[in-house]
Amino acid sequence: MSIPQHVTKAHATGNDFVVYLDPDGAYEPTEDEVRLLADRHFGIGGDGLIRLAHPGDVSDLDDAQVADCAANGAEWFMDYRNADGSLAEMCGNGTRAITLFAQRHGLFDGAEFRLGTRAGVKVLTSLGDVPGLGRDVFRVEMGAWSRGELDAYEVTIPGTPGSARGTFVDMGNPHVVALVEDAFSSLPKVEDLDLVTKPVVAPVIESDQNVEFVRIDEIDEAEMAGEATMRVNERGCGETLSCGTGLCATAITLRAKTGIDHWTITVRGGTLRVDVTDEDVRLTGSATLVGDVTLL
Length: 296
Prior knowledge:
There is one protein chain. By secondary structure, the chain is an alpha+beta fold. The chain folds into 2 domains: about 5-135 and about 285-295, Roll (Diaminopimelate Epimerase, Chain A, domain 1); about 145-280, Diaminopimelate Epimerase, Chain A, domain 1, CATH 3.10.310. The chain is about 15% helix and about 45% strand. The chain is built from 4 helices and 19 strands. It has a 19-stranded mixed beta sheet that branches. Helix 3 (about 90-105) links the parallel strand 4 (about 75-80) and strand 5 (about 110-115). The N and C termini lie close together (about 10 Å). Belongs to the diaminopimelate epimerase family. InterPro entries: DAP_epimerase_AS, DAP_epimerase_DapF.
């Protein structure tokens, strides 16, 4: 098995991962190994697997990606795999979980950590414990984003009556954000959606995408702040309790619809803050190391 004997279970607002350190580049996992470890009945269980390795030891990276990590001070790379074994460009919750793991292993000094991902180098800042957000909170500089035309897609869920309008957002990985419980949605309330079933987006987007279903709960125009509730079906793993890039895509869409820049968003795994500007987006939330596991 190309997995080390000792791994760690971690999560960030319920988005859970099997993580491990590979300083010598000896343990690049196969798709079958990822699927086995991520299996919630026959393995450890998780929405994905994260190998923390040096960029030069990640076989799918090209020379330009490795050089970008070096130029931006990222000694370590988040080699993230979805639960089905497929490669993933980015995982906002995963960056916080693996940064806490790196911090506990003494891999960086100070409050700032530069982490390579397939969507570029991300900068994480340790904020400690933050009221309302939890313990071991990190702010992630998620970088540039792009958005398509508002409400350009129809989103349905097989077996569920109704539809909603969705907006495409590129966070380094693809998202379609659909508002529910508004004038353009005939889907059930966000709490009642069946997200075990994979949503359908029309017209079809070339690549598979994550789909977020969102309700606006409150807006304070004086403070330029809003509150919302979100659920998500992630490609490669189905519904998850939280999705970092999905939270960012949600805040970007809500900003376009309301003009509000700062959002506190509740997902099934907890509460996070997202701050959006024209140039970038910041995601702030907690991370947890659950325990160490010895594989037999």
